[in-house]
Specification:
By secondary structure, this protein is of the alpha+beta class. The protein has 2 domains: 236 residues, Hsp33 domain, CATH 3.55.30; 61 residues, CBS domain Like, CATH 3.90.1280. It has 10 helices and 13 strands. The strands form 3 sheets. The protein has a 6-stranded mixed sheet, covered by helices on one side.
Amino acid sequence: MSELHKFIFDGLPVRGSIVRLTDAWTEVLARREASTATGAWAPPVAELLGEMAAAGALMQSNIKFNGALVLQIFGDGPVKVAVAEVQHDLSLRATAKVVGEVGVDARLSDMVNAGNKGRCAITLDPKEKFPGQQPYQGVVPLHGDRREKLEKLSQVLEHYMLQSEQLDTTLVLAADSKVAAGLLIQRLPLEGEGNLAGSMVSRANEDEIGLNEHYNRIAILAASLKREELLELDVDTILRRLFWEEKLLRFEPQTPRFACTCSRERVANMIRSLGLQEAQEIVAERGEIDVGCDFCGQQYRFDAVDAVQLFAAPGDQPPVSPTVQ
């Protein structure tokens, strides 16, 4: 069963979380493989999506937000967009749009950032919006401050957290066909924290320097975790091996799961946005409107009568048009 564990380091402004997506991740892959229209993703694409799903679960678990956290990677490579969406209850889904071939050894830059135009976007979309409220979105490029291409999703997200949230973060991610996993360590800001200035350093700043040293030490330990260890070892073993000298305060584990938010009503609203004429033209050409969910593979079919009724006002008789006869 998939599991997510949160913990803090006793007496230090450092928090952590670790996630192992098992059944939740294999459900994503199984639904993709079952889709006759698309088929399985190439291994590098699946690995990227698994890391995104694990990262999304880690980030969502650290915020008090009633809504969806949407992690997107998009650019100018064969992977036009990759998306992982995690709800406040840690239900999740993921998909990617791929145009062209992805080599077996493709890296992040090969898939998404061929011309250095790739971007990472993190969107917080509230479940219940106030009138006029828009989702919050932060966007960062897939390169570092010196314009060097970032080859790991973990590097991209560490850069995002430092630039957008001013949080020092260490992130280790890995995924294969059975498990998508991640470890996140963050330094929490201190009250009244500021930049050090001048030749005199106060006792408070000395304490701050010491706490930074603690974070740096813990971050180095976390970064030593190998991909194979993250994928193969259980949570207790990983935490014991990495932080056996630390006192961890652990919280009740959470259980991520696969779930899709698609519905016939949402698809109907999408068809309405096309307009009656375009909907009728699709029906005339194909006999029906057939829409498949990219996330779960569910098919939604609307025949000629269904399509016309979408545009009828409540209580009205559906209009008759020669195009749908």
